[in-house]
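Lab notebook, entry 486. We have the chain sequence and a SMILES string for guanosine-5'-diphosphate, and the next step in the workflow is to get a structural model of the bound complex before anyone spends time on docking refinements. Request logged below.

Task: model protein plus guanosine-5'-diphosphate, output C-alpha cells.
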Amino acid sequence: MIGSSRLEGADTIVAIATPPGQGALGTVRISGPSARRLALELFRPWRKDPDFPQERVAVSGTALAPALSGDPPPATAKGTSSAGRMEALDHGVLVFFPAAGSPTGEDLVEITLHGSPVVLALFTAGAQARGARQARPGEFSYRAFLNGRLDAVQAEAIDDLVRARTAYQARVAHGQQTGALARAVEPARTALVDWLARLEGSIEFGATDDEDFLQSKDLVSGLAALAASLDGLLAQAGRGLLLNRGVRVVLAGEVNAGKSSLFNAWLERDRAIVSESPGTTRDILEAEVAWEGLPVMLVDTAGERTGASPAAGRDPVEQEGQRRGAAARIEADLVIWLLDGTVSPVVQPPPQVEGEAERLLVMSKADLVVPREVTVVAGQDPAVPRAVSARTGDGLDDLKRAALALLAPGWDRRERPLVTRLRQQGCLQRAVTALSEARELAATGAGEELVVVPLGDVLTALADLTGRGNLEEVYDRIFSRFCIGK
Ligand SMILES: Nc1nc2c(ncn2[C@@H]2O[C@H](COP(=O)(O)OP(=O)(O)O)[C@@H](O)[C@H]2O)c(=O)[nH]1
Ligand SMILES: [Mg+2]
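Result returned:
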C-alpha cells in the first residue's frame, strides 16, 4: 500500500509545462530532491538574498544555460567541470515549493521564462546536464499521487480539467479535483469498515453480552442503506460519462434537404459549402459545439438519392461520400434525418439500416412550406415531423432540445456528476455487485465468516476507486473501537 508515505529514492525530473510553440511566457518545472540545488545553479536572482530560494516567494532573475561557445573550461579545484560553464539565457521568475505542501509532494521549482521554444529547451537541457531527468508524460501528477497529494480520482480530474472543451466540463472536473467523489463515497465506506470490524470482531472473539453487535436484522438494514447510497452514485454515472466523452450527431437525408445549411446554422459560421446543386457535400465534415455544456460533434454528410432523383447519383465520388455517410450513421449517437418539405407533401424516409443510431425526423426549409401540410410516413405511422428553417433559425433550439432529450435523458447542467470515467464506474459497479452478494447472504442468515468475504470485496473496490485505504483500516477499527483483549 502506497498510502501517504513519501516516495523514496526518487530522481529529479524536469519538463516544459506549457504547450509547445511560441507564447508570451513558458514554464519549466523541476521536481525532486535536487530541485533546490538546480534552482541555485540555474538561476541568478537580481536582488541579493542569502536565503534564496525562499519558499513560495516569486523571485526575478537571470536564467542560465550551458555556454554555447569556447573550449570547455579547465577542471577547477572544486571539480565541477562536467557540468560546464554557464551563460545568461533569459530573464524570468522562479518560485520554490518545499516538499511539505508542494503540488508533487517533493521539492518543486517552477521557472517562468519567455515562451520561446528554444529558450525553454536550452534551460531544460541545462537542468538535465546537471542531473535532472526528462519527465515522462503525467509524471508530476503521478508523483503527487504516490506522495499522497492526490487520489486517483483527483488525478483523473486534472486530466479532465485540462481537456475540458466546455465550461460545464471544466466545472465538473474542478468538483472532482476537490475530492467530491471521494467525499460522496466516504460515509458508505466508513459504515462498511464499521460493519466489517463488527463481523470480524465477532468471528475472532465472539460477541459478548454487552457487545452483541450482530443483530442480523441490523446487518440487513445497514447493508441496504449502504447499497442505496452506492446505487445513487452509479445511477448518475451515465450522464457523467457522456459529459466526458461527448456525443456524435450526424446530419443525414436526401440531397439538397438542407443538411449543410443546418450544420452551418448550428456552428454559427460558414463551414460547409451550401449550394442548390444536389450532391455538393461528399466528404464527411465534423465540428464541435456545446449543447447545454455537452460537447456535441456535429457531422455533415453526403445526401442520399433514394426519393427525388435516384438516377442522378451515379458519380463514383458521390457514391463514396454516401458510403461514408452510411458508416457515420452507424457510429453516431443520434441521426438527424432531414426531409425537404418543398419536394413533396408526403415523404418516405428510407428504412433504418441494421446498427444505425436512433433517428430524429425533421422537416427542413420551414420558411418555404406550411409544416402541417407535410406528412411523413415513418414505418406504418404517419407522423408530422418537427420543422426547422436554417435560413430563419426557426425551430433550431427546439430541435436541439429534442435531440438532447434523446441523447442524454434528464440532462441538467445544474447537476454536477461525480462519476465521469469508466474506471470509476467499474469500481462502483464491482462494489455494488459484491454488496448485493453480501446482502443476499445476510438475508438468508448465512454465517458471519461467509458475509465478510463479499463485504471485503466491496471495500477493495471502493479503495481502488480512489487508490487509497484498504483492509488494514478494518483491523484498526476492531482494536480501537471494540476494546477486545480486555
Ligand atoms: N428557404 C430555405 N432554403 C434552404 C434552407 N436550408 C437550405 N436551403 C437551400 O437548399 C439548398 C440546399 O442546401 P444544402 O444545405 O446545401 O443542402 P444539403 O445538400 O442537404 O447539404 C440551398 O440552395 C440552400 O440555400 C432553409 O431553411 N430555407
Ligand atoms: Mg450538403
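Notes for the group: The chain is about 40% helix and 20% strand. Worth checking against the assay data. The CA atoms of residues 304 and 310 lie 8 Å apart.
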